[in-house]
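Sharing a chain and its predicted structure for anyone who wants a worked example. Both blocks are below, sequence first, tokens second.
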Amino acid sequence: ARWLTQWIVLFALWMALSGVLVAEFMIIGGISAVGAIVVSERLFHGSHEGKYASAPNSVKWYAITVLRFMVYIPWLSYQIIVSNFYVAYLVLHPKLPVEPTLVEFKTTLVSERAQVTLAQSITLTPGTVTVDASDGNFLIHCLSRTTRQGIEDGILQKRVAQVFGEPWVDHVEVTDIESPNQVPR
């Protein structure tokens, strides 16, 4: 089911980008999609065995996850817009109330896809940047106390967990990194 879903998405992308409905192009697109799947399976198979929870292998899970993700995207877009206005306020304020901090936390997300989505969502939201995300440990640069509070609230982590059907907590324990030797290696 996963390979078929990947093939359909890649073939649809090929068709959308080529815009040509000639048999030769469709055959090349189908073969290219299969080739991309084979190469990605060979490259990444076994590289994270046992580190992350694997996705359920059912079409129903994929369909529900895609629908949840379609709800998540507008919510994230709204958060990005609000954060843009906040960062603009910080930068344009006469006193420049910027208080940068580097924080670390452990996520409750168990799958690689959920952790990557969380890391990318944090970075997409202005005022925060994911510096490192490995094995569920996140290192985040926050521009102010308000953006740090957003990480502690765990709202973004909860939304990502809901998309992928994973566990979450209502509050994230955040540790401040105060000296260079505290940065995880």
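Comments welcome. Strands lie at 101-106, 128-134, 137-142, 175-177.
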